[in-house]
């Protein structure tokens, strides 16, 4: 899929078919995360692939915004080392965005559940056995979509200024 | 360009031809930023397109890691509203990553200069007239490349675990 099409057409998908995600696609998606840029190419990330029903169910029970993660065949946690680069949050977000684009390009749907600094990050960390010196940047739910939601964006003319900040 | 090719082949480019960036390409690149996901679709970002030589030169003079920004025909500052969503840093990073992928797909080169929380963010903010309640998430230098650097990544087998965190 063309990169502009992937960027333009990707949406947050929260409803999934029961159909499993093929291993080959999952690998391609994780590869996309792996090739994200990071500050000083430090790659301060790990990916946890979550398929165990009990683990997904525990995560869903503590995450008010991620309660659909147990409805997804697969979850991915992007875990960062906060000391691992000068900009670990940005690095983990770039990896997450690559994962979302790759999922869409493979006809899968995904939703970025923002975790870093949220009320439930600590509890999710316990469930996933994540050490105290690591953080969950994002949880991503993943599966074949059963919905195709529409979302708009603010026009470019409202966002762009030249050489100096302008509030429009 | 295929999205996987863009993700896999994109590199940080710090050396540029003098050739200008066509307006049409610049618009496509900013569009890619605009269509990034954000927490609650709040889109807490603005983009400053920097072409003025004096502005670029001032930025280069204060930024130890961004000293090549005055060598690039164009700079883009991704400015975020820290109160604008629940995860503004991640949102701005997703927009930045989209911009980098779009640039590569259009045969341009770009470099993500991490700015948020850096020593020079405050001075860059002054130069660009950015109010105190807004932050610079990233500066991006942009132009036709004169280099094609190679950078590797840690293997996927070192990064991925199943259902539980594992340090490998």
Radius of gyration of chain A: 17 Å
- Helix and strand element order of chain A: HHEHEHEHEE
Task: Output the CATH class name of chain A.
Answer: Alpha Beta
* Overall form of chain A: globular
Largest sheet of chain A: 4 strands, antiparallel
Mean of residue pLDDT of chain A?
96
Number of helical runs of chain A? 5
Total individual domains of chain A: 1
How much strand content do the residues of chain A show? Answer: 15-25%
Let me know the CATH homologous superfamily of chain A: NADH Oxidase
Number of extended strands of chain A = 5
Question: Largest contact between protein chains?
Answer: A-B, 71 and 70 residues
Distance between the termini of chain A: 34 Å
Oligomer: homodimer
Estimate percent helicity of chain A.
25-40%
For this structure, the CATH topology of chain A is NADH Oxidase
Uncertain stretches of 5 or more adjacent residues of chain A: none
Secondary-structure-based class of chain A equals alpha+beta
Question: Could you walk me through the main structural features you see in this protein, from its secondary elements to its overall organization?
Answer:
The structure is a homodimer. Chain A is α+β, with helices and mostly antiparallel strands and about 170 residues long. Chain A has a single domain, classed as NADH Oxidase (3-Layer(aba) Sandwich), CATH 3.40.109. Chain A has five helices and five strands; from the N terminus they run ααβαβαβαββ. Chain A has helices spanning about 5-10, 25-35, 55-60, 90-105, 120-125, and strands at about 45-50, 75-80, 110-115, 135-145, 160. Chain A has a four-stranded antiparallel sheet, sandwiched between helices. In chain A, helix 1 (about 5-10) packs across helix 4 (about 90-105) and helix 2 (about 25-35) runs antiparallel to helix 4. The longest helix of chain A is centred in the middle third of the chain and has 18 residues, at about 90-105. The radius of gyration of chain A is 17 Å and the shape is globular. Chain A starts with a helix and ends in a 6-residue tail after the last strand. The interface between A and B is large, with 71 and 70 residues. Strand 1 of chain A pairs parallel with strand 5 of chain B, so a sheet runs across the interface.
């Amino acid at each position: 899929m063309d990169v502009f099409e992937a960027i333009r057409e990707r949406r947050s998908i929260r409803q999934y078919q029961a159909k499993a995600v093929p291993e080959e696609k999952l690998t391609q998606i994780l590869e996309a995360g792996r090739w994200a840029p990071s500050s000083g190419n430090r790659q301060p990330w790990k990916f946890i692939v979550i398929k165990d029903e009990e683990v997904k169910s525990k995560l869903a029970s503590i995450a008010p915004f991620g309660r659909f993660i147990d409805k997804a065949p697969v979850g991915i946690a992007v875990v960062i080392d906060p000391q691992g680069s000068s900009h670990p949050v940005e690095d983990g977000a770039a990896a997450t965005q690559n994962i979302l684009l790759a999922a869409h390009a493979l006809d899968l749907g995904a939703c970025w559940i923002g975790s870093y600094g949220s009320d439930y990050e600590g509890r999710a960390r316990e469930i996933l056995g994540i050490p105290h010196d690591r953080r969950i940047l994002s949880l991503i739910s993943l599966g074949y979509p059963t919905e195709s939601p529409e979302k708009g964006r603010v026009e470019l003319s409202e966002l762009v200024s030249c050489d100096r900040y302008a509030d429009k």
